[in-house]
Specification:
With about 450 residues, this protein is mostly helical. The chain has 2 domains: about 1-160 and about 305-425, Peroxidase, domain 1 (Orthogonal Bundle); about 185-305, Peroxidase, domain 2 (Orthogonal Bundle), CATH 1.10.420. It has 19 helices and 2 strands. The longest helix has 26 residues, at about 350-375. The chain binds 2-acetamido-2-deoxy-beta-D-glucopyranose (5 copies). One of its GO terms (biological process) is hydrogen peroxide catabolic process. InterPro entries: Haem_peroxidase, Haem_peroxidase_sf, Peroxidase_pln, Peroxidases_heam-ligand_BS, Secretory_peroxidase.
Length: about 450
């Protein structure tokens, strides 16, 4: 991605360079897009996701999935947020979303707060993109800088959502093909499937594996027997169980870690499309690799998420900045609509002070992070390759993103978790820079169309 290095060169010593080299002009995403126009954006999003999580522990998985379902259907344009209009049938009622897409009201609420702070400035799709990252951070996953400046689409398509979103019942080849048509490779399939480390799926999405796999009258042989019996009790073989829920990663349900991959190695993937990653030598290699190296999963997940977030974006003069979730009539109406629906948010009177507290925590977090990184040096990089460029980039990224970083919610959140068990390594969100995937041997992606977390 061309903007990868910009944040570094955007700082003072390189200002002069930017005049000649920056491709930013317009039509491109920019890490600093809202720095002037909405400086508190990231804090407001973080607060919104955190508040929603306190009420509903499934929210992180729901937001992550919503972002995926948005980007996978005609690009990241906020189309998944749109209700049906007289001009089009929206995506909310498409089969992969109906009765399973969640988190709309969280984005709505954050949007309302942002309209108060910076009216008509921030697109819904950028909010959704940031919220998906906060969801990962809040769940113990990595953090990464996100280039911004996406604009909201004017339309949505139920048909496209039905056709383009991958299904948990599809063979790996088909899923890989759908990723490829969005510019994502096999590695992205494997890496983004790792999002199934959190969230739940409804029984109907995997029940075929429990009782009558592929018309055999038997369970899927690639399903661990103790998991099988536990799933059969969650999802008895009657239609009434179809919407019951089972965790995608039953070991660490709410924790964003690499246990998803360990489960696959143990024949304990929930969905057929998950376990299918072990059925192909190339993807199975990657699964083994991520099951052993949580840090590399974190790093690659960040990179694939940035790729995902860049699919088919609208920039410059394309699209619009939606006021709310309805597309606006193309010629912007006079100055009528400036105010937003605040009703649901009267309780947020104290958001200013909350943000101030978050800001202080953030600064402390950044300082601690720098010290930590200085102290651990190579340790944090693990795997030998310790290139200076990567290091510099990481520094730049974390500075840039510093304001946005720390996960103050986590400590508080941890208490509300039922199981947070994982002794696992990924715990501390490291500022993971956007890097071009360096691994030589892999490609592909798949994701979570299926869980309805
Ligand atoms: C809390 O979460 C539930 C779903 O678990 C949702 O129906 C409800 O609207 C949420 N309440 C608030 C205040 O967000
Ligand atoms: C997979 O893709 C092939 C070729 O497009 C198609 O014929 C087949 O029906 C698809 N399989 C499923 C289960 O969707
Ligand atoms: C399902 O059965 C068909 C025909 O019996 C077979 O070709 C196919 O490979 C099976 N699929 C799986 C995933 O086992
Ligand atoms: C995988 O299986 C091994 C051996 O049965 C077991 O020790 C380990 O706990 C399992 N891991 C997971 C994540 O289920
Ligand atoms: C950002 O938040 C700080 C702390 O609450 C506040 O003082 C400042 O006015 C806010 N800036 C904008 C532009 O809203």
């Amino acid at each position: 991605m061309g903007f990868k290095l910009l944040p570094c060169f955007n700082t003072i010593p390189f200002l002069y360079l930017i005049l000649f080299l920056s491709p930013l002009a317009d039509g491109q995403l920019d890490y600093n897009f809202y720095d002037k126009s909405c400086p508190n954006l990231s804090m407001i999003v973080k607060y919104g996701v955190w508040a929603a999580f306190k009420n509903d522990t499934r929210i992180p998985a729901s937001l992550l999935r919503l972002h995926f379902h948005d980007c996978f259907v005609n690009g990241c344009d906020g189309s998944v947020l749109l209700d049906d209009t007289k001009d089009f049938k929206g995506e909310k009622n498409a089969f992969p979303n109906r009765n399973s897409a969640r988190g709309f009201e969280v984005i709505d609420s954050i949007k309302a707060d942002i309209e108060k702070a910076c009216p008509s400035t921030v697109s819904c799709v950028d909010i959704l993109t940031l919220a998906a990252r906060e969801a990962v951070v809040l769940s113990g996953g990595s953090n990464w800088p996100i280039p911004l400046g996406r604009r909201d689409g004017l339309t949505a398509s139920e048909k496209a959502a039905n056709e383009q979103l991958p299904s948990p019942l599809e063979p790996l080849e088909n899923i890989t093909a759908k990723f490829a048509s969005n510019g994502l490779d096999v590695k992205d399939v494997v890496v983004l499937s790792g999002a199934h480390t959190i969230g739940f799926a409804q029984c109907f999405t995997f029940k075929g594996r429990l009782f009558d796999f592929n018309g055999s009258g038997k369970p899927d042989p690639a399903l661990d027997s103790s998991l099988l019996s536990s799933l059969r009790s969650t999802c008895p073989n009657v239609d009434g169980s179809n919407s019951n829920l089972a965790p995608l990663d039953s070991q660490t349900i709410y924790r964003f870690d690499n246990v998803y991959y360990k489960n696959l190695v143990n024949n304990s993937g929930l969905l057929q499309s998950d376990q299918a990653l072990m059925g192909d030598p190339k993807t199975a290699n990657m699964v083994n690799y991520y099951s052993m190296y949580p840090f590399l999963f974190s790093k690659d997940f960040a990179a694939s998420m940035v790729k995902l977030g860049n699919i088919g974006v609208l920039t410059g003069q394309n699209g619009e900045i939606r006021k709310k979730f309805e597309p606006q009539p193309p010629p912007p109406p006079p100055m009528a609509v400036t105010q937003q629906v605040h009703s649901a948010h009267s309780g947020h009177g104290s958001i200013g002070s909350v943000i101030a507290v978050l800001a202080v925590i953030t600064i402390l977090g950044v300082i601690a992070g720098m010290i930590g990184r200085l102290c651990s040096g190579k340790g944090i990089m693990g795997h030998g390759q310790y290139d200076f460029e990567g290091w510099a980039e990481r520094k730049c990224s974390s500075c840039l993103d510093g304001r946005v970083e720390p996960p103050p919610p986590r400590a508080a959140a941890e208490n509300t978790r039922n199981n947070g068990s994982g002794d696992d390594a990924v715990a501390v969100p490291v500022a993971v820079p956007v890097e071009t995937p360096q691994e030589t041997e892999e490609e592909t992606t798949q994701h979570h169309p299926h869980e309805n977390a």
